[in-house]
Amino acid sequence: MDVLTGLYNRRGVDGLLKRELAAASRRRSTLWLALVDIDHFKRVNDCFGHQIGDCTLRQVAQELRDQAREGDFAARWGGEEFLLVMPSCSDAEGAGVAAERMRGAIAARELALAGATPLAVTISIGVASVPPDGDLDAALGRVDQALYRAKSAGRNRVVVANEATDIGACSATDVGATAG
Known about the structure:
Blueprint: H1 10-27, E1 31-38, H2 41-48, H3 50-67, E2 73-78, E3 81-86, H4 92-108, E4 110-111, E5 119-120, E6 123-130, H5 136-152, E7 157-161, E8 172-177
Parallel strand pairs: 6-7
Antiparallel strand pairs: 1-3, 1-6, 2-3, 4-5, 7-8
């Protein structure tokens, strides 16, 4: 477990991912992943200090946990990135809607920071699938590319990778975008 956020850490999520992939394979269903990045997080640390940065990470983690549906789980992937594993989504639209709900909830909430003015935070999210018997590494590459596209398109948005494309030519659909 990640000590700061109380979520699974990267090593901890590896076993859970393998278990979810095996279950999805048995069900012949698709597993959906979302990679979340806090927008301009370095600026939070630089302007407000690392204690405020840590508080921001904890509150974003809590919001992701609160917004996750039953059966879905979040992990701290590294730094200010989180991985959402969504076995309960049946298709790209459902995964995009779930990710957009999380993005919207965080964008709508000012984070309460002890002794400081509340802080508005946004996140960018990339979403991709792992088809039954699919390659997890390839899916992680697609979800990373989708996140990159969300950030390069202006941040504070969700981009769903087209599972038919390869990592180098990731086609994406912008699910929800607001100025950010």
